[in-house]
Task: inverse folding
């Protein structure tokens, strides 16, 4: 009988603690909020997100910036809405879920796939596709609401800061190289703009996959950092003869990964080997100029566009990361209340790798 009452007491105590925890989740939490174009990121107290069926509430331990966040603040991104909690990248611990049959996720250390509602076609995203952090509130907060299907176990060997650096950039680079360009061991790869988040992941993934990698960058220091990560060579794209320098170093390339577009594409076509694949995932340098399209068909080149990645791409990327025990490059880590200062690091594009917020 005494044992029975002891069990009842323990259960009541556990239920009481659970109720306290649940009540605390119904209050406010700290988040970084952007209120308008060119406004600073502000630390605010806002209501904790309310989850529904097939959703999870994740207590964020670390989050990471992407160039996307910078463009949104500048007002140069589609679908702007304010106020908004930015942040596509995040890692943390599942606090609770909306369905009892998904309770096995509670307490799990996770990394979040920021690619929402990709759709049924692996070849392209559907009409409902969106990226966490706009229009849905993102990871620059103590809590974030995400679909349970976007939860993935955090690689155990990575810290929360390292894992948070992984999702958007790692996924974009993985799809560009493998799903779109068909990277295989022995390929010669050119990564344009080494130092940016996606470009740095493209460098890492290509090296791990057994490719020979060259880079371009705006500073000698970034080229040195790329060499330390396994690149075989690199040139400054600020020099007028950068393409000829690359030709002397490498000959030609089977895959070129580019986030800039602009005038450099003319040189990409000349630098591509027969059968080469040129993959684009951004256009910061402007539109593609007039091209000699005869080179495209004579060299059997493929110009490929890519955006983010599907759930299958994310699964494959995480398997690749775990297989190679890959560690994302973290440029700097800031506290949550330093988010505006952290974003300002992107103004001059001086970072190499990811800028991370430590939220826990």
Result:
């Amino acid at each position: 009988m005494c044992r029975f009452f002891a069990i009842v007491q323990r259960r009541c105590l556990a239920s009481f603690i659970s109720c306290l925890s649940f009540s605390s989740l119904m209050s406010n939490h700290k988040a970084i909020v952007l209120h308008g174009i060119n406004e600073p990121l502000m630390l605010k107290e806002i209501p904790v997100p309310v989850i529904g069926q097939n959703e999870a509430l994740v207590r964020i331990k670390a989050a990471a910036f992407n160039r996307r966040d910078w463009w949104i603040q500048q007002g140069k991104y589609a679908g702007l809405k304010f106020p908004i909690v930015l942040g596509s990248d995040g890692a943390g611990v599942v606090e609770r879920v909306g369905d009892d049959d998904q309770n096995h996720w509670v307490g799990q250390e996770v990394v979040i796939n920021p690619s929402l509602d990709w759709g049924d076609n692996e070849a392209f995203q559907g009409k409902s596709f969106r990226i966490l952090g706009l229009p849905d509130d993102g990871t620059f907060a103590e809590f974030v609401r995400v679909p349970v299907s976007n939860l993935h176990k955090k690689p155990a060997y990575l810290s929360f800061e390292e894992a948070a650096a992984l999702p958007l950039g790692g996924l974009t680079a993985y799809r560009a190289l493998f799903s779109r360009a068909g990277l295989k061991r022995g390929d010669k790869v050119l990564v344009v703009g080494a130092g940016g988040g996606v470009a740095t992941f493209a460098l890492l993934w290509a090296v791990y996959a057994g490719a020979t990698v060259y880079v371009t960058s705006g500073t000698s220091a970034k080229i040195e950092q790329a060499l330390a990560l396994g690149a075989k060579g690199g040139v400054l794209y600020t020099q007028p003869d950068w393409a000829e320098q690359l030709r002397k170093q490498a000959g030609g390339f089977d895959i070129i990964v580019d986030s800039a577009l602009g005038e450099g594409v003319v040189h990409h076509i000349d630098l591509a080997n027969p059968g080469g694949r040129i993959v684009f995932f951004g256009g910061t340098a402007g539109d593609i100029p007039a091209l000699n399209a005869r080179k495209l068909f004579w060299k059997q080149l493929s110009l490929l566009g890519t955006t983010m990645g599907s759930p299958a791409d994310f699964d494959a990327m995480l398997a690749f990361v775990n297989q190679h025990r890959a560690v994302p490059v973290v440029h700097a880590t800031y506290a949550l209340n330093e988010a505006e200062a952290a974003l300002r690091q992107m103004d001059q594009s001086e970072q190499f790798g990811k800028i991370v917020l430590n939220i826990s």
Remarks:
- The chain has eleven helices and 18 strands.
